[in-house]
Structures are given as C-alpha cells and as structure tokens.
Amino acid sequence: MTNSASRVASSSVGFWFILSLSLAVVYSIQALREAFSGEFVVQDDARQHVFWMQRFVDSQLFPNDLMADYFQSVAPAGYTWVYRLMAIVGIEPLLLHKLLPPVLGAIATCYCFGICVELLPIPISGFIGALLLNQTLWMRDDIVAATPVAFVYPLLLAFLHYLLKRNLLGVAIAIALIGLFYPQCVFICSSVLILQVFWHSRKGAEIETFPASLRLPISASSSLAFYAITLAVAILILLPYAFKPSEFGAIISVAEAKTLPAFLPDGWSNFFDKDPVKFWLCGKRSGMLPTEWCGLAFNYSFLLMPPQLWAALALPILLRNPQRFALVKQIRGIDILPRMLIASVSWFFIAHALLFKLHLPNRYTEHSLRIVVAIAGSITITVLLDTLVNYPNPKSKIFLSFLIAFALFLYPPILKLQKYSFAADSYVVAEVPALHKFFLSQPKDITIASIAKEANNIPSFAHRSILVGGQGYALPYHKKYYAQIQQRTLDMINAQYSPDLKEVQRFIQTYGVDFWLLDRAAFTLYYVENNNWMEEFQAKQPIVEKIKQGTVPALSTFLEKCSVFNTETFAVLQASCVVNQSK
Q1: Element (H, E) at 466
Q2: How many CA atoms, within 13 angstroms, populate the side-chain half-sphere of residue 463?
Q3: How buried is residue 520: exposed, middle or buried, by Cβ count under 10 Å (0-12/13-18/19+)?
C-alpha cells in the first residue's frame, strides 16, 4: 500500500466511492422501513418542526394556531423553502421528511469521502471515513428527522471540502446555505476562516492563488481576498437574523430560566445540572460532547465509547512518529481539523457566556465533533492498516486486526445488543389510528384540548389544531410564547380535574375548544401520579390531593353522555355538549 500511495488511480477511487455511497444506502434502509411501516408514522422531532408545513398544501389548516405560528416563525428560511417548493410540486411535507434523510446522508457521505481522500490520498481512507460517518449519523436522530439540524452534516462537510480545495465559489455557497438552514454553524465557519488567516500568518505561509477558472470579475487572486469574500458572505447571511424581531417576545434570561421547572433536571428542556461534569461535558443542551458519547460512558463502559473517538485521539501520536508510520508523510492539510475544534469549542463557551441569546451551547460542538472525529478516525485507521500490512509480528497483527475490525464493523451490533437506540427507533406510530381518522373527518378549524400523550400526534396525523402540546411543543426560550403555553396548560389541567362544571364551561368558551380528548384512565390516581407533563408545570400535587379526597371532576361525569368517539383507551367529548349541560 505504501509504495503505491503517492498516486490515486481513478478506477480505484471510483470503486471506493461507489462502495461508500452504498454504505449510505444500506444505513438508510432501516430508517426508511420504519418511516413507511404504517399509515400514521412520523419522526419524533418532526412532530413539532414539520406539522405546520401542511399549510403549504392547504392554507386553511391550523388557523390561529399558537404552536404552528411559533414553529413557523423560528424555522430557518432555507429549510422552509425546501418544504414549500416540494409541496408546490406535489410532495407533502410529512412525506418529504421521510424521503430527505437518505438524500442528505448520501450528500454528506460524498463530501466526507472527498475530504478524507484530500487529507490522505488513499481511496480506502475515504471509504473508512464514510463508514464511520454513517455509523454516527444513523445512530442519532438528527439527520433522520429532516429538521434544520439534518442539513448541518452535508453543508458543514461541503464547507470543509471546498475550503481544502481552495474553491472560493464552493466555500461561499456552503456558508450561505448553512446560514439559511442552521445559522449557528456560520459562526463556526467564520472562525475557521479567521483562524486560517492567523495560522498562515504565524507560519509565514506564502500567499496562495486561485486557479484561473475560479477567478471572479473582481480581483480575488489572493488568500486575503478569499477570506474577505467568504467572511463577507457570512456576515450578510447573518444580518437578517440579527435584525429580525420575534413576535413571541424576548429570549429568556438565565435568572428567569433557573426559576422554571422546564429547565431543571426533570424538565423537558433540562439545562441546569448540579453535577459540573454533566453540565459542562454531557448535558444534552449544556454539555460540550455529543450526548451518545456520554450516555455510553455513564451507562456501560468507556471501552464502549465510539472506536473512531479513540482512533481520532491517537492521530496526534501517529503524526509525531512518521518514521514508524510511513503513510503519515502523505497526510496534508490536516490542520483544518484542529481549527474546526478550536472554533467550535470557542463558540461553545461564548454561547454559555451569552446563554440562550445564541441558542444552546451544545449545538456549537456536537455536530462538528462528530464530523472531525469521523475524519480523524479514518486517517488513523488507514495509517494503521498500512502499518499492519508491513508489520512483522503475527500476534500484533492479530490484535491490531481485531481492533480495526471492531472499530469498523462490530461496534454498531454490540450497541444494538446493549439496547442502544438508533435513528430508526425515533419514529412515532399512532396508538389508535381510528382516532386520527375521526379527527381528519372533522372541520379544518377545530381545536382539541387534551393532556393525553397521543394528542401530540394529532397535528401530524390528523392535521388539526390542539390547544397546547407537551414535550417538544412547549419550548421555553421565548418568553411570550412560553407564557401562553404555560397559562393554557395550567388552565386545561385545572379544568379537566375541576369539580365545578362552570369552570370547565368557561375554559371551553375562553379557548374555543371543540373537542376534548380524554384517556379513559385520566381520572385515576395512578395516571396523575405518573404524568410528567403535569409535574413539569407543577400542577400534579394539587390534583393528587383532590383525587385522594374523593373529589369527582365534572368532566368525568360526561364520558358517556357527550362522547362522540370511543375506544378502550380514549374518549372524545363534544365540547358544545359539555357547555350545554347544567348540574
């Protein structure tokens, strides 16, 4: 391998490239199988970020819907337009969110392959990088959700690829697209460019020039012009976000967030953890590391951390020993990886310093760390493979072969045996399909009140408005939005368990409720004591006390009289029927 590594035969590159793309297809098959396993199936996060886009198909859907309006307002422009344009050509948003992940995965694979071969011109390095990347992507639910974060991987890899190729147009377009889909990463890209300027200045590097085919009408033949143009693109793409006011109020402050149960360890948006290790390293929103790395470390063993992570950590050792690892001498441009890490970690701490104004700190490191580790791991494994071929000790060969095989092929199956959740496991299936068919047959402007978990699926499956949703719907970052969510939730819980019929009727009339979806077990002590939604809004204990005292909720007396849809699990009450009742 070493003797032939100085040149990359095009036929060999083509073979490993096609094999890499095949990996992307294979890994996406399981997700596609789950996505199309039934009539009512949706990815978990897509329930919040995609449901409102059905407005592109039918403008009469979700009228005056608080949650639909909110998620539409925070959706990045590029993300919105992809779904809007596809809706115009006849592909509905909830179908598109199932079709996009394999496409995005394939694009990310192509760029990852190109980056690895650019850093180490051995085709197998591209294949290994593609394998490690796909293992990472399909272990997580980021790309399978087809939400804005799903576009980070192909676009961030495109940025790195074109930067390595010194392609001005490619870098500029990649930055612009990142800004349109996931603006946080524009800060990272800009910092990488700035670091590259200082990196070259410190090393006294000679000014590089562009190939003639890439020269623009303006004078852009020097490195300085390259960085000036690409940074200008970054600034221009971020300006609309800087000056765009939110109709849902200011961003919550740290002091205010610490008073909300939603941000505490048991809350849906948990952020503040008393354990400094979890807070700074492993917090889903506050920590520096990707959550799956921490989850494995705490639940199983550090030995089950991603093998590519250990391989990436070994790369600096290999680079310092070119006499023992001959292939190291052919590595080029590898300093782009530490620049990426420095930029990401810097913005992680800046986001902590300006907490919530730049969204969540974890978003500045988790994606770039996965990408950097996959690329660095591929370089390490390729170098070790080359060394293994020429290694004289048979026992060492067997040991190294096992380590490499584990890193490349055995890791995902072992995780599966450990019952680790993969991307394909993140799809939500309707508990009672007939329920959603019933609501689909109702007028488009209805509003449904419910604290049942199944209600969170109604906007996606039945395309009808719910008064308020739990879990991912109740994001607490914009104060005006969350205040309304909080008030609606508390009013709805209190009305559902109130013994006063007039209070229930006032609630229905105030919020314009048309139907009330009830779990048949909703009025039992067990149901209330195990309801996390009620706990988050600090409404559980008063209801528990009422039930223990034998208080009979007024709504429970109309389960049969006002019911218009029934199953063993659920009952749907006609709100107008409840309003017309008297004690």
Answers
A1: strand 465-466
A2: 18
A3: middle
Tokens of 292: 């799956």
CA atoms within 13 A on the CB side of 424: 15
Report how far residue 91's alpha carbon sits from residue 513's, in angstroms, rounded to the nearest whole number. 31
Paired tokens of 436: 């959603």
List C-alpha distances in Å: 12 to 17, 109, 164: 8, 17, 21
Q: Report the amino acid identity of residue 277.
A: V
- The crossing angle, in degrees rounded to 10, of helices 184-203 and 168-181 is 150
Q: Give the C-alpha separation, 110 to 553, whole Å.
A: 59
Q: Provide mean pLDDT across the span 467-481.
A: 91
Q: What is residue 300's predicted lDDT score, i.e. its pLDDT?
A: 43
Q: 118 and 164 in contact (C-beta within 8 Å)?
A: yes
- And the tokens for 379? 């370089």
Model confidence pLDDT, tens digit, residues 34-89: 999 999 999 999 999 999 999 999 999 999 999 999 999 999 999 999 999 999 99
Fill in the DSSP letter of residue 308.
H
Quote the CA–CA distance of 85 and 102 in Å, as a whole number: 19
HSE on the CB side for 533, CA within 13 Å? 25
Say if CB 481 and CB 475 are below 8 A apart: yes
Reduced to 3 states (helix: H, G, I; strand: E, B; else coil), residue 239 is helix
How far, in Å, CA of 83 to CA of 93, rounded?
6
Cα torsion 84, 88, 93, 98 to 10°: value is: -110
SS3 136: helix
Which amino acid, one-letter code, is at 523? F
DSSP three-state, residue 425: helix
Give 451's DSSP letter.
-
DSSP sequence for 272-337: --SSHHIIIII-TTT-SS-HHHHHHHHHT-GGGS-HHHHHHHHHHHHHT-TTT-GGGGG--STTHH
